[in-house]
Amino acid sequence: MKTSLSTRFLSEDELVAECRLGNPRAQRVLYDRLSGKMLAVCKRYLRSTEDAEEVLMLGFVKVFRGLEQYRHEGSLTGWVRRIMTNTALSYLRSQRPQHVDIEESTACLTPVAAMAETDLAAADIMRMVEKLPNGYRKIFSMYAVEGYSHVEISNLLGISEGTSKSQFSKARAYLQRQLACCEVGLGQN
């Protein structure tokens, strides 16, 4: 009787050990287990689905090449998430300028459609976050979603802690204006 690979690797440690040996089926199982969550991480930093998928692939190459460095301190998912975040940040640094200021006149450009009558769903808010300019979205995602401190963000991005705080504050203000626009749109029903 042949057992499926995913049931054969019941523990995370066993799966990591097989991946370290270069077992392609084990690598596929690890990819299948984590790729959905990691694509969501990549999408928080990159607007384009194609770019997010490219970063996902680049990130998993780094994961498989760097598995010898994984020390089983903390979760494997957290370790992979950090690699994906760093890969997305490197990709963004190579593509576009770091910071963009938003003019006040753009405050109410795109209302969120298909909302509940009075409550915004988490998916609606994430869509708003995805529409933030790159610099704002990156710092907002790192601080509010991923849980990095402003000190960690400044070290990762090579910016000052004050810049990180300022960009986060501007992102939050932008999102608050978007939410206000949505509330006005809801009140018109």
TrEMBL record:
Cross-referenced CDD domains: Sigma70_r4
Signal sequence annotation: none
Highest taxon in the source lineage: Bacteria
Location of the RNA polymerase sigma factor 70 region 4 type domain: 124-174
Domain RNA polymerase sigma-70 region: 30-96
Family annotation (Gene3D superfamilies): 1.10.1740.10, Winged helix-like DNA-binding domain superfamily/Winged helix DNA-binding domain
Alphabetical keyword list: Sigma factor, Transcription, Transcription regulation
Pfam families assigned to the protein according to its UniProt record, in alphabetical order: Sigma70_r2, Sigma70_r4_2
Family to which the UniProt record says this protein belongs: Belongs to the sigma-70 factor family. ECF subfamily.
Record protein name field: RNA polymerase sigma factor
